[in-house]
Structure formats: structure tokens, C-alpha cells
Design a protein that fits this description.
about 425 residues, four-stranded antiparallel beta sheet, binds pyridoxal-5'-phosphate, Aspartate Aminotransferase, domain 1, 2 domains, alpha/beta, single chain, 16 helices, Aspartate Aminotransferase, domain 2, seven-stranded mixed beta sheet
């Protein structure tokens, strides 16, 4: 029987099928005014924005915008044309890579056009037949997809419970019993949804004990954590133990692209083997020039980071006082869990989002199956730019929401168990 490959498109199947089914594009694909910041225009209203990863406020930076405008005037959006190995390599790209390498305290660095593609390219270029990738279960989709690519070329994937050192050790031990190839551990530095930090001291100790390599995708830690914004490795004092340090520019750098920093021979290998970049046009000059200036602001950004933390703490404290449960709060990310009091999680989660939008507070809800049923999580990103008044307005809206929607008064022991399961003990 012949089946039309498009048959599935008439159904609600697919990864986000349930969201497609909801039909309300205002919740699942809101149409935004593009200018990012602490407040944004949405459906004609000014809303306080908590869903944009503009950690240290650089999306609003006029100097960077000016540099980008000048570069657009000088180079247009086409330059350079071609891939890095053909005609798309410039001294500007190479100089910027050296700046990133120096900042990350590694020998060399290499630019990618997207964080997502960078992770795919790096992992798939390094891991193949006989190798094993050992992946944190809660890692971002790009890490899971990178592992799947490595598997397609012959590597084995093993998962460990989120941030669970006992489980990681047990997996590494098993892998080493029959080991024929290399082993690479794949983790995030700051987990972007739940806001907790990788147990880097623990992971580094295990990777040395079991002779593995460590790749860290620090999308939410770069520019945010550590001295001069060097990231989560620096925060824990283990940057030298990280074999491949990766950051995207889509978050604190308020731009696009990403970089990997490592030993020179490893970076050179990636440069010639990471197919997601080798066979793609190089990063446009507008971004290379803008990122060069942005990196100054990130390096000199300790005051910005202090303010970001102040705002994060104020928001977390305000919501905690109302009885909301805010994960461990180890990073600026404020992950707010609310029990929904019913299994109709999407329904209650969606109603909460809508309620907050009527109060001009913009949040995005994360629901089952990403987190356990009966809970809704708002992943909120406090930034340097938010004001006390905006934080206050948000806390008041959460207070009224709880009352008006009859949300349970406080999180129960059972809810805490579920939340802890998210953080430490994801099953699978
Ligand atoms: C942990 C992590 N890695 C990678 C990415 C993808 O980065 P980019 O948007 O630069 O492709 C994201 C973006 O959501 C992320 O959160």
C-alpha cells in the first residue's frame, strides 16, 4: 500500500502536536513586535517581558546597534560570500575567534552560525564508530539531536539521570568495562529550562577518573556566570578541565551564532570536519563586527551582572513569599512551579498564561510532558534592564492570579517530590 508522506500533516501527531492541536496561536506562536527588551509590544499593549534571554540587557545596547548599522552600510548582509573553506574566511573572523579563545582561556576557538548547528557539528565530527556519548537526560534538544547524529555514524548513546553523579558514575563504569573507543560527556552548564547548574566539580572529577572528555553547552551561562562572564566553568573554577567549551550568541550576547573553544588541534579538527558549518556560508560581517563590540560589554559587564542578580533575587523572593516554588535558584533563571490542582495541566497552564497577559505580564508556560503532570512551570528570565516597578507589577499579578484562580495555597510535599524529581532524578 502506498502512503502519502504528507498524510501525517493532516493529524495532530509530531513532537509539539498537542500545541498545534490547541489551535490558539496566541499561546503557541504569539506574534510579537520584534524589538526585544524588558518590555515589549504585544497585541498593541506594552507587556513586561520575562521570556527573552537578554540576561545582561545587551539587546537594548545602542552602541552595538550602531556598530551593526555601520557594518551593514559597509558590507551589506551578503559579505562574506561562501563557506569558510571556499571564499568566506576573513581576518575579522579569525581575530574574533582568537578573542573568544583568549577570553575562554583556551588555545583556539571557532565560530558557528547557530548554537544549535554548532552543537550538532562538534559532537558529530568527534564521535563515531566505537565511541560513546554520555548525555544528561535533561539536556537541550540540540544535545540530544547531536547524540542522535553521532549514533547514526556508529556511536553509542548512554543517558544519565539529570545531574545525578551516582548515575553518571555507574554509566561511565559500565561503558569502561567494554570500552573500545572514546567517551564524551554532553551537558549544559546552566540548564536553560530549570535554571539549575551542572554539578561541574563532580562531573569533572568523574570524567578524569573514567578517562572521558567533557563537552559543555553553556548557552545560558556564557556572559552570565563567572568572572568577566566566562561562564559556568569559570564560576566553579574548573574551566581548565572542560575539554570543549561552547556558548551561543543568542542569549546574553543578544545576537546570533555560537563558538567553541578548546585545544588548537581539537578546534582545527572541528574546523575541517563539522559538516554543519563546513558546508554552510560563513557568519556574516554584520554579526562578526557587532559581536566583537558585544564581547567588550560582556567582559566589562560585572556591574550589569550584579544588577541582573539583584533583579533575579527580588523576583524570586517576591514569588517565594507568595508560596510559589522557585527551583534551587542557582542561576538568574527563575523557574516558577505552580501546582495546577488538576490533571488538566494544559488547560490550567494556558489559563494562567492568559491571566498574566491580561495583566500585561508576558511569560511562557512549560507543562507535561516536559515536567511531571499536575505542575506548570514558568521559565522567567530576569535581566539587568528590568526595573523594581516591573518586578513589583509582576509579583502583584502572580499574587492576584493565585487568589482569583484558586490555585492551591502552597506547594504540597507531593509537589515538592515531583519538582525534585525534575531536578535530580529524571527517570527513563
Ligand atoms: C542549551 C541551549 N543550547 C543551544 C541552543 C540553541 O542556540 P541557538 O539559538 O544559538 O541556535 C539553545 C537555545 O535555546 C539552548 O538553550
Amino acid at each position: 500500500m502506498s502512503v502519502d508522506i504528507f498524510e501525517k500533516c493532516k493529524t495532530d501527531a509530531g513532537y509539539f502536536g498537542q500545541f498545534r492541536k490547541m489551535g490558539e496561536r496566541d499561546l503557541t506562536r504569539p506574534t510579537m513586535d520584534p524589538i526585544p527588551g524588558k518590555t515589549m509590544s504585544y497585541n498593541g499593549n506594552e507587556v513586561v517581558m520575562w521570556s527573552v534571554n537578554n540576561y545582561i540587557g545587551l539587546a537594548e545596547n545602542d552602541e552595538v546597534k550602531e556598530v551593526a548599522s555601520e557594518a551593514a552600510r559597509e558590507f551589506g548582509t551578503s559579505a562574506p560570500m561562501g563557506s569558510r573553506m571556499m571564499s568566506g574566511n576573513t581576518q575579522y573572523h579569525q581575530d574574533l575567534e582568537q578573542r573568544f579563545a583568549d577570553w575562554a582561556q583556551k588555545e583556539a576557538a571557532y565560530l558557528f552560525n547557530y548554537g544549535y548547528l554548532g552543537v550538532l557539528g562538534i559532537v558529530s565530527s568527534l564521535c563515531g564508530p566505537k565511541d560513546t556519548v554520555v548525555v544528561d537526560r535533561l539536556a537541550h534538544a540540540c544535545i540530544l539531536d547531536a547524540a542522535a547524529m553521532a549514533k547514526a555514524s556508529g556511536a553509542t548513546i548512554r543517558y544519565f539521570k539529570h545531574n545525578n553523579m551516582k548515575d553518571l558514575e555507574s554509566v561511565l563504569k559500565q561503558v569502561n568495562e567494554k570500552r573500545e573507543g572514546g567517551v564524551m560527556i554532553l551537558i549544559e552548564g546552566v540548564y536553560g529550562m530549570t535554571g539549575d547548574l551542572a554539578d561541574l566539580p563532580g562531573i569533572c572529577a568523574l570524567k578524569e577518573k573514567y578517562n572521558a572528555r567533557l563537552f559543555i553547552d553553556d548557552a545560558h551561562g556564557v556572559g552570565v556566570m563567572g568572572e568577566k562572564g566566562r561562564g559556568t566553568g569559570d564560576f566553579f573554577g574548573v574551566q581548565d578541565k572542560i575539554d570543549l567549551y561552547f556558548g551561543t550568541f543568542a542569549k546574553s550576547f543578544a545576537s546570533i551564532g555560537g563558538f567553541v573553544a578548546a585545544d588548537r588541534d581539537v578546534v582545527e579538527w572541528i574546523m575541517f570536519n563539522a559538516r554543519t558549518q563546513v558546508f554552510a556560508k560563513s557568519l556574516p560581517m554584520v554579526f562578526v563586527k557587532a559581536l566583537d563590540r558585544t564581547l567588550d560589554f560582556v567582559i566589562e559587564g560585572d556591574d550589569r551582572r550584579d544588577l541582573m542578580w539583584e533583579n533575579s533575587n527580588k523576583l524570586k523572593e517576591g514569588l517565594r513569599e507568595l508560596g510559589y516554588y522557585i527551583g534551587p535558584g542557582e542561576s538568574p533563571i527563575c523557574s516558577v512551579f505552580t501546582p495546577t490542582g488538576s490533571d488538566d495541566v494544559n488547560g490550567v497552564g494556558a489559563r494562567m498564561v492568559k491571566y498574566l497577559r491580561t495583566r500585561n505580564i508576558f511569560v511562557t508556560a512549560v507543562v507535561y510532558p516536559v515536567i511531571p503532570p499536575g505542575l506548570c512551570m514558568f521559565r522567567m528570565i530576569p535581566t539587568t534592564s528590568h526595573t523594581d516597578a516591573e518586578i513589583q507589577k509582576t509579583v502583584e499579578a502572580f499574587r492576584d492570579m493565585k487568589k482569583e484562580m484558586n490555585l492551591m495555597d502552597s506547594v504540597t510535599d507531593e509537589d515538592i517530590l515531583k519538582i525534585n524529581k525534575v531536578y535530580r532524578n529524571i527517570k527513563g
